[in-house]
Amino acid sequence: MFSLFLITPLKLMLLGLVAILGFTIFRYSWVAFSGQSDRGRFLRALALTISAVVLVIISNHMLLFWAAWTSVSLSLHRLILFYPERPRAQLAAHKKFLLARLSELLLGVALLLLHYHFQTSYISEVIAQMPFAGSHLDLKIAAVLLAVVALIKCAQLPIHGWLIQVVEAPTPVSALLHAGIVNLGGILLLFFAPVLAASSSACWLLIVWAGLSTVIAGLVSTTRISIKVKLAWSTSSQMGLMLVEIALGLYEMALLHLFAHSFYKAYSFLNSGSAVNNYLATQLSGEFKPKVRHWTLALVLAIAILALAQWQFTVTNSMAAAMLVLFALAALILPSVTRLDSATAVRLLITLVVACALLAFYTTAKHHLVVLMGLDAPLNHSADNLVAMFFVALFVFSMALQYWPHVRWVKRLFIWLNAGAYLDEWATRLTLKLWPSQSLLELQHAHLSLKTEAKQ
Questions:
Q1: What letter does residue 343 receive in the DSSP assignment?
Q2: 19 Cβ contact partners less than 8 Å away, ≥ 6 residues apart
Q3: Which end of the chain is more exposed for a tag (fewer CB within 10 A), N or C?
Q4: For this UniProt entry, which segments traverse the membrane (predicted)?
Q5: End-to-end CA distance of the chain, in Å?
Q6: Which sign does the torsion angle of CA 193, 204, 369, 152 carry?
């Protein structure tokens, strides 16, 4: 007989992540709201949200899983509207509320289809029967619905606007949302990975939609000045990247990405108040801006390290993963080759040693996670090559925006990106037209104010 709750090695790792982030954000909130009369109300809503996330992770019954998933959104809604008098917070909460209800409806239909096909309400039994399920229309539809739910939860373009505007909420809410809640889309697909892998349509939907979101949102983030807004756009891009990794069957890479992104975003948001001091410290340190030749040298060194590691240890069989690791290594090496002085050789040697150590750690962790997670899927080489092209395009366009801003097509690209590709404006107008709220006038005022703040 199956249990309502199930603990697996994957779920244990996720519970550890939730525990660390939950404790850190709760402690930060306790101090940040000290002396305020609303501290108790905020901490209760925060604890309820974290508890709902834990329930999502450990649930093994479809109805319980769906109820917990819905509870996360409802409790988060209270946190987003903690300052209800702010029009932009109302706008974000309104759009988030509608999208959440849509995703819950689609998730419910997907779970009903799985229940109908396998005649069981237990998720573990569904996963156990998947290798013998064959190819059926109801399973393909369920996989596509799960993919759409993940895309909505991860705030992929053009339904990303609420994630950008939710910075109106208190800083701990932004940290919780960006470091944890948006990851639920990826966690959902990891839990139902065999169902997703059985549908090429669902995988291609994720690759194209999330891949384009990764590139566009990543480029838009480079045009933003506000730290929180830049981080919000970056989250949309990073979530798209995680979904692409899952669609390619690179589950262990997606899990490593999920952990790294969660810790980074939690730190970045909770430390965002020190951004000005960090910027001034960087300016006073006399840091040099890298030039194209520095990037070229960093890429050459990164290629050499990756080629040697691939020859000796087989880091990855995926071209997309190789490109991602290559650009990460180049970014790590870049500061060491930017400034040429008497300490350059020592600095570069230390950086190369650190790069090799990180690559060895990544390779070791990846191989162990493959065994620990127990998930495997054949690599689609056509999709893999397309994703690799997405990564190259993101790098090339980023370089063009940084080093050739006066070229005509780069100017046009910058204007388009600076306006957020105009996607959220269309989505906001459509949302308010189809489903206006009681505070419609305030929402419309907030929507108009977005144009004046687009350059932030």
A1: T
A2: none
A3: N
A4: 12-33, 45-69, 98-118, 139-163, 175-197, 204-227, 239-260, 295-313, 319-338, 345-365, 385-404
A5: 55
A6: negative
CA atoms of 376 and 253, how far apart (whole Å): 12
d(CA 147, CA 201): 10
Q: What angle in degrees, to the nearest 10, is found between the helix axes of 292-313 and 381-403?
A: 160
Q: What are phi and psi of 419, to 5 degrees?
A: -90, 10
Q: What is the dihedral of CA 78, 456, 213, 215, to 10 degrees?
A: -150
Residue type, 253: M
| Amino acid at site 337 | V
Residue 202 CA to residue 428 CA, distance in Å, equals 27
Backbone φ/ψ region at 289: left (φ over 0), alpha (ψ -120 to 50), beta: beta
Q: Tell me the percentage of the chain whose pLDDT exceeds 70.
A: 90
Average pLDDT, the chain: 85
What is the chain's percent helix, strand, coil content, to nearest 5? 80, 0, 20
Do 220 and 351 touch, CB atoms closer than 8 A? Answer: no
Alpha-carbon distance of 454 to 224, in angstroms, equals 8
Contact between 209 and 160 (Cβ < 8 Å): no
Q: Quick one: what percent of the chain has pLDDT higher than 90?
A: 40
Query: Which stretch of 66-75, 151-160, 235-244, 285-294 has the lowest confidence by average pLDDT?
Result: 285-294
pLDDT digits (tens, 9 = 90+) for 112-121: 999 998 999 9
Domain positions in the chain: 9-271, 286-376
* CA 370 to chain CA mean position, Å: 21
Question: How far is Cα 331 from Cα 278, in angstroms, rounded to an integer?
Answer: 19
> Would the pLDDT of 278 be above 70?
no
Residue 292 vs residues 266, 298, 338: alpha-carbon distances, Å: 32, 10, 10
Contact between 155 and 163 under an 8 Å Cβ cutoff? The reply is: yes
pTM of the predicted model as reported, rounded to 2 decimal places: 0.89
What is the amino acid identity at position 129? Q
Distance CA 116, CA 56 (A): 22
| Distances, alpha carbon 152 to alpha carbons 106, 148, 156, 189, 393, in Å | 10, 6, 6, 13, 24
SS3 128: helix
- Say how far apart CA 55 and CA 47 lie, in whole Å: 12
**C-alpha span between 46 and 35 (Å, rounded):** 18
Q: Give phi and psi for 59, each to the nearest 5.
A: -70, 140
**In 3-state terms, what secondary structure has residue 228?**
helix
- Mean pLDDT to the nearest integer, 368-390: 84
* Residue-by-residue DSSP string for 388-423: HHHHHHHHHHHHHHHH-TTSHHHHHHHHHHHTGGGH
